[in-house]
Please model this.
Amino acid sequence: MNRLLKLAIVALVASCGGGNFSAPRQLDNACAIAAERPAYMRAMRATERKWGVPVHVQMATMYQESKFIGDARTPHQYALGVIPIGRQSSAFGYSQALDGTWEEYQRATGNRRARRDNIRDATDFMGWYMHGSQQRLGLSKHDAGRQYLAYHEGRSGYARGSYNQKPWLIRVAGQVSQRSEMYRQQLAACRRA
Model:
């Protein structure tokens, strides 16, 4: 009886949606992502309605940040190549939000229960952040590349042009922009189909 009770509890916890943090199978196909993970699309559409950030911009940013993995974390750092000394940053979840920025989002939106490993909360965070970048920096919500630079460097870093000292980051922002356009075209095609 005790074993049966344990199995029932495990089944109940698994049914609450706390388990599927793996990446979708076809990351280069927006229509396949939408079909495989309809909850992702519902969350992104809700964010688009609320904050005005297009789904394809959210998708491209999330691809770059976490590859759509809900419990993604930055790699560990090692002293002397073998002694673990912690992670590279506090970035976590679908949106790879840092602890401090996530807490700012929670305070600003009143959503104290928001979790970075919840797709609805993560996309809402991205929308909130990109909306703020439009308000403070004048960045178009449709400009995935520039939004990504502000997202990665922080708004103050973006305003200072810190990304100009990082050719690799400018290249990554270009890739985010290209992926956003690819996702935009794919989503338009699968809506017509």
Residues 167-192 form the longest helix (26 residues). The chain has a mean pLDDT of 86.
